[in-house]
Every structure is written in structure tokens, then in C-alpha cells.
Amino acid sequence: MPHFESGTFTGPAGTRAYKLFVPEGFAGKPLPLVMMLHGCTQDPDDFARGTRMNDLARQHGFIALYPAQPPRSNAHKCWNWFSPGDQRRGDGEPAVLAGMAREVAAARGADPDRVFVAGLSAGGAMAAILGREYPDVFAASAVHSGLPQGAARDVASAFAVMHTGRLRPTGPTRSGGPGIPTIVFHGDADKTVHPANGQHVVDDVVAGSPIDPVISRGENQGRPFVHTVFPGRDGRPFVEHWEVHGAGHAWSGGDPAGSYADPKGPDASREIVRFFALQRRRALA
């Protein structure tokens, strides 16, 4: 039977433990890899329960990798997306996480063109950073209840943008290139991370693009939503924005056995897996 393995990655920028789920029945096939970044106060086991991502890994055939943020690095186990030293390529947590993704993908024979990153809250903010700083590693990102890169420079500015949604040019200039394909989920009743931040993530990725969006509306599990799709020139969706009405700071369509998981609303995990399945790492100039 497949099981949740424990491991540790060490690179020049630091060390992090992780949990890893490798589904059975796909031996010899180069599977996609999805890195899942938990939110504050969470851990890999809790995040796996709330997102049900291991069940989807078993169904669809991908490796699920869950890095763990220890209390020694942040008292609340948040990824330090607001720290200048953890917002750029080659430094801090982005370097550790990208290095971990590379090492685990290579060790498990994963498809290097189908390595993805997803996260919730602080994990979503870090996923946005990784998508901008490491387009050579990650083919697409998913940002749930998160914030854009450079939204804060310290704890005070982090709380300010979380509560108000008003951006100021506080972070370091990014070293990454244009944005990678990104899917964004955010509840419009989120009292922890203002829902304007979801739109900021979208704007950051599509900035300067002439793409016209396609907007649709619907309802799922008792929650109405607005679904905005920015198609890419290759016909695949480049950015998707799911605004879930009445949803708070929790994983949409999640399992309440995990923390910060809302059983109502569109199933974010399934939509993220669907979006990732359409993407491949793009050639970089």
C-alpha cells in the first residue's frame, strides 16, 4: 500500500522536513509532482487531510510533496513570505523549497516539465513567490487565500496588507521573469487575508498582457462563485480566478477533518489538479 513517507532536504539555504505521497500503479512512468505548502499553524498531515490531495494523487497519478515549516523558523509555522530574505531567488525559503522540489523530482523520476506548487494563505503567498522566481522549476502555481510577491517587507506591513488589501511597493524587486500559469482561489468573506489580495495575485501574473478574460458564474455546494479565465496564446488557460462568495479563510470544498478547510464551495483541489494537468513548463528565453 502507498504510504505517507517522511524525508528531509538540506541545501545551501537551509533544511526542511517533508512528507511525500507516491501513488501505486504508476511504476516506470514519469509522474507530475505537486508541492503543497501549508498555511500557518498547519503541518503536512493536517494539510493533506484538509485538501484530500493524496486521494487525488492516487486517482490521477501524481506525486504529492508537503514541506514542513518548523516553529524554529516561524513561531506559528507560517512561511515567511513577508521577509525580504525569503522573497527572492537564491535566498532563504524560496531556495530551500525549489531545491527540495528539484531533488525529490529527480529522485522519484518525476517529469521535470510537470512540477507544480500550490499553497494556502502564507503557503499561497510563498507559492506566488516560487512561481515568479523559479519558472525553470515550476510549470504552474496555485494560490489559495494568499498574497502577491512583494506585498510586505516585515510583520507590520504583512498585517496591513492582509487586513486592508491595499498594496504598497514594499517588497524587493523580483528577479524572476514573466508569471507562470496560475490558478487563484479566494473567498470574498475572508477576514484573515483580504479578498482584494486574490485579485492582486491575478493582476501580478497578467500584468501587461493583452489577454481578454472569459467570465462565468455558478454555484457549487451552496456557495456561488465567479470564475474568470485568462486564456493563453496557446489555447490553454493561463490564469484562472475563482472568487467564492460567502467563503472565509479556508480551503474551498475541503475536508473539515483538516484545519482551515470548508466543505462548501467549488472543490479547489480538483480544480487545481485539472488546471495543472493542462500545463507544461514553458521554454525560457
From TrEMBL:
Entry superkingdom: Bacteria
One annotated GO molecular function: hydrolase activity
InterPro entries: AB_hydrolase_fold, Esterase_phb, Plant_Biomass_Hydrol_Est
UniProt keyword Disulfide bond, yes or no: no
GO CC annotation terms, alphabetical: extracellular region
Keywords: Hydrolase, Signal
Pfam families in UniProt: Esterase_PHB (PF10503)
PANTHER family membership: BLL1128 PROTEIN, UNNAMED PRODUCT-RELATED
Protein name (record): Esterase
Source species: Piscinibacter gummiphilus
